[in-house]
Design brief:
Chain A: Pfam families: BPD_transp_2. The complex is a heterodimer of chains A (322) and B (372). With 322 residues, chain A is mainly alpha-helical. Helices cover 69% and strands 2% of the residues of chain A. In chain B, helix 2 packs across helix 12 and helix 5 packs across helix 6. The chains are: A mainly alpha (322), B mainly alpha (372). The interface between A and B is large, with 56 and 55 residues.
Chain lengths: 322, 372
């Protein structure tokens, strides 16, 4: 494995990390505001379907993205209604949303496109195309640095750049703005905000709208940038890996990025490690690498490597009069 | 929820869930109308498919048995204040124990297979639930998150076992089939009405599990401890109840109950273990437990509803090919959403209607306090 191989591996890691990162940041807003979101998976799935279906019908990928964000935000609002207004169980609401997306996407896919639940393949101009940074070709001749520029930094779709831009933006919003301060506070101590005359519900609604929008982008990436159509259950657990990444990152944006990249490397190396004999250990089963993000998260949660502390008020509906 | 007036008992236990389920079916019907098909035809196909024939009943009761096990699993843990959403993984890992013992004993007699695989399934399910329980009790990691993670770890682990370790020669990711002498008897062997249905002897285990859970939770010392811990951990501590012990025992029972699904589905019907055999039944158990208010009677009824939905969905695919059978998944999701997460939706309306009768009504226990 030489430098070029490593750069290519990192490149595919970045591609695999992007949907995780977007979903992870989405979950960050929700959970920081005190609302558990195990429905990330469902929102991404619904968004992926909306993006692919709209792009296939209209031929416009941007309309697809818009539809994805609309569907995902709508689902997020159902979650808001259940957890804020009806003070329902947020975990059950998340489970329901996951089922709802799994059902609706295939149901409508069957009925509309009659292709066994998938959407038609998108032409290259109906997808998010890759963006070449200036002089990528020329600069690519330079060993290592040039290759990093050409392979790793250049040649991604706009959503990839958006995802990595969302990290500093989220960090800034969360730690440097008034909204961010209130968002963190409402997840820790909603009563204090209420006493100070701010609306707990409004803040949580705002957070869940952002969650919906970001999940929408994540879903659109899967079906119109990384892939070229929607297929049944195409998120295949990414929403839950994102949730694991969020916990592993201790609900912080920069750490979220590094964790998602780490999980991206893990899944990119799955294929490469198949059949490879390690000295001392022997062959590592591919399933073990698949399970590694979850195992790491459990180990972290158990406090064996640091401590993951969730926002204090997470999961509890806020009751004003008491 | 101090602002909310208590309603008469029958309203909260019967009327509200019924309204919620009705609403789920109405929205499901709208989805059918949206794709240009007749909703009433689709609903009739669902209903007739589930209850119209003896075979339909057989399938419905078979699926219901699975839901009884996973529903009770969620309920037992919930009484101890633990939200075990790992039934999916526990049932999956239990399948390993069940099938290994069943394949080992299948040349002897089906009674040995039944008892052996039941014991192995319960042990494996319990083990897979004890770890998250122990992690919560001792290390403070939240059981909801750890059980989610354990579902995925189970899926990877079982994938490995089925592809690499216990694979049948020539097959892809499944075990060999249980030999004739070891197969569990079907109900149709005794009752003609259930012909061609997979309903088997494990159904009686489902009934026993319901009774067992009732006795355990409301008639034993352990059940009292479980409920005390769930209702008020602080009080439980003052009463000298060891939270660690009760949590671990409750999670073990919970996992063992979820594991029983393996006997019904893998050993009883599929007669081998295939990748992903649980197929969401563990998650539906959450809905079953919540709809049934964690009480065996309620769970039996909710399991019957979901069993009927599953079976009706299969028939729907035959009767009306234009309506994708995922309709069932949609209705199921809406039932979970409305009964589990939006249970209070109709409260204000019902409050207005029943306002005058309030003074006579007994205090209602508060439900569904979210956690995690």
């Amino acid at each position: 494995m030489d430098a070029t191989d490593i750069i290519l591996l990192l490149d595919s890691s970045v591609r695999l990390a992007v949907p995780l990162l977007l979903a992870c940041l989405a979950g960050l807003y929700s959970e920081r505001s005190g609302i558990v979101d195990i429905g990330l998976e469902g929102k991404m799935l619904g968004a992926a379907f909306a993006a692919a279906a709209t792009a296939a019908v209209t031929g416009n990928v941007w309309l697809g993205l818009l539809a994805a964000m609309a569907v995902s935000t709508f689902m997020s609002m159902i979650h808001a209604l259940a957890s804020i207004n009806f003070r329902g169980n947020q975990i059950i609401s998340g489970v329901a949303l996951n089922f709802l997306a799994a059902g609706f996407t295939v149901f409508l896919g069957h009925a509309w496109f009659r292709r066994g639940g998938t959407t038609p393949n998108l032409r290259p101009d109906e997808r998010f195309s890759t963006i070449d940074l200036p002089f990528a070709q020329e600069f690519g001749q330079v060993p290592i640095i040039g290759e990093i520029y050409e392979q790793l930094l250049s040649g991604h779709s706009i959503i990839v750049y958006f995802a990595f831009l969302a990290v500093p933006v989220t960090a800034f919003v969360l730690f440097r703005t008034r909204f961010g301060l209130r968002l963190r506070a409402v997840g820790e101590n909603p009563k204090a905000l209420d006493t100070a005359g701010m609306s707990v519900s409004l803040l949580r609604y705002q957070a869940l709208i952002i969650t919906g929008l970001l999940c929408g982008v994540a879903g659109a990436y899967l079906s119109t940038a990384q892939g070229a159509n929607f297929s049944e259950n195409m998120t295949s657990g990414r929403g839950f890996i994102a949730l694991a990444a969020l916990i592993f990152a201790k609900w912080r944006p920069w750490q979220a990025m590094w964790t998602c990249l780490l999980f991206g490397v893990l899944s990119a190396s799955q294929i490469r490690l198949q059949g490879v004999e390690f000295p001392m250990i022997g062959e590592v089963p591919v399933q073990f690498i698949q399970a590694l993000p979850y195992i790491l998260t459990v180990v972290l949660l158990a406090g064996f490597i640091g401590r993951a502390k969730a926002p204090k008020a997470i999961g509890q509906p806020y009751v004003k009069e008491r | 929820m101090s602002a909310r007036q208590p309603l008469p008992n029958w309203v909260t236990i019967v009327l509200m869930p019924a309204l919620n389920v009705l609403l789920a079916f109405i929205i499901g019907g709208l989805a059918v109308a949206m794709i240009g098909e007749n909703p009433l035809d689709a609903m009739w196909a669902l209903f007739y498919g589930a209850f119209g024939t003896g075979m339909g009943w057989g399938f419905t009761l078979h699926y219901a048995t699975n839901f009884i096990f996973t529903g009770l699993a969620v309920a037992v843990a919930y009484h101890a204040g633990m939200f075990n959403i790992g039934g999916e993984g526990q049932a999956y890992v239990a399948g390993l124990g069940a099938i290994v013992v069943a394949l080992w004993l299948d040349q002897t007699h089906w009674t040995l297979v039944l008892l052996g695989s039941t014991a192995a399934a319960m042990v494996m399910g319990a083990l897979w639930a004890i770890i998250p329980g122990w992690l919560q009790a001792k290390r403070g990691s939240h059981v909801v998150i750890t059980t989610i993670m354990f579902n995925f770890i189970a899926s990877a682990f079982m994938g490995y076992m089925l592809v690499q370790v216990i694979t049948a020669p020539g097959a892809n990711a499944e075990t060999r089939t249980i030999a004739e002498p070891g197969r569990l008897p079907l109900m149709s062997d005794w009752f003609d009405a259930f012909q061609y249905s997979p309903l088997n002897i494990t159904f009686f285990f489902g009934i026993l599990a319901l009774i067992f859970t009732y006795v355990l939770i409301w008639r034993t010392k352990l059940g009292y401890k479980i409920r005390t811990l769930g209702a008020n951990p602080e009080a439980a501590r003052y009463a000298g109840i060891s939270a660690v012990a009760v949590i671990i025992i409750a999670m073990a029972i919970s996992g063992a109950l979820a594991g029983l699904m393996a006997v019904n589905e893998a050993v009883g019907v599929q007669k081998r273990l295939v990748v992903g055999y649980v197929a969401g039944v563990g998650f539906v158990g959450i809905a079953v437990a919540f709809m049934g208010r964690s009480h065996p009677v309620g769970i039996a009824l909710a399991a019957l509803l979901f069993g009927a939905l599953y079976q009706g969905g299969q028939e729907l695919a035959f009767e009306l090919p234009a309506v994708p059978s995922e309709l069932v998944l949609i209705i199921q999701a809406l039932v979970i959403l409305f009964t589990g997460a939006m249970g209070e939706m109709f409260h204000p309306v019902l409050e207005r209607i029943f306002a005058k009768k309030i003074e006579a009504a007994p205090e209602e226990a508060t439900t569904s306090t979210g956690e995690a």
